[in-house]
């Protein structure tokens, strides 16, 4: 891959994919709405000659077409807030796919696991898609749109991540916890502190996503991006405290508490329906990746959390 464009390049997954592509010598176009954020991204990469940026609107396919004309692969990392998912997600999908189809490009869609609903079988790419939440059902419609037969020229694939963490993370469930601990403040943890759950370290996810994108036969399919195993909230907090040396309280936010917060906060109102994941978890199987791509990068939680915390404390 000689040249790629990353839509939503200043977001959590977008930033690590930009970094991973640059590390491989790929020319990268960072696409986003905010000139100041894009310029900051350029600065963080020492204004690399392989990195440029383009200002545009993810909902305006024409701006994507103009920016992506010379790219071989489009990485779609932009997202919409929970409270706007019902009204905007399908429009986003229509825009990016229309641009990819006009240009005849490969496009990699970064998505999550709400589409599966409760885990009822092995968590591979063939797990039944039985979403029981509003957001899960919207994500199912989103997948159907991405793989629609109406796109005659675009070649799409979807990568699915569990919850994630890392220095660039912005909207993950772990972020309030890690930010609070890094700032030596009393903070919260979304969910049960005792439930073992899966998280993926964003730099590991970026490596896997780019490896998948490099393979011509990866397209037209879903791909899991699993983490290194399970870890509880209590274990995460213990690791973070070892780095910070701080002992401020971390309060778990249960479903009942979030329902109350949702009366005043539109984001929290939308979090309620997917709290099942914080209680049950969902474990992604990486067998397909291992068979067709290679070994899965598995940064140990201790190492990844320590690096994340050190970065947040700077």
UniProtKB/TrEMBL annotation:
CDD domains documented for this protein: SDR_a3
Single GO MF annotation: aldehyde dehydrogenase (NAD+) activity
InterPro entries: Epimerase_deHydtase, NAD(P)-bd_dom_sf, NAD(P)-dependent_oxidoreduct
SUPFAM superfamilies assigned to the protein according to its UniProt record, in alphabetical order: NAD(P)-binding Rossmann-fold domains
Coiled-coil stretches: none
GO cellular component, one term: cytoplasm
Position of the signal peptide: none
Record-annotated NAD-dependent epimerase/dehydratase domain positions: 5-225
Protein name: SDR family oxidoreductase
Organism: Peribacillus castrilensis
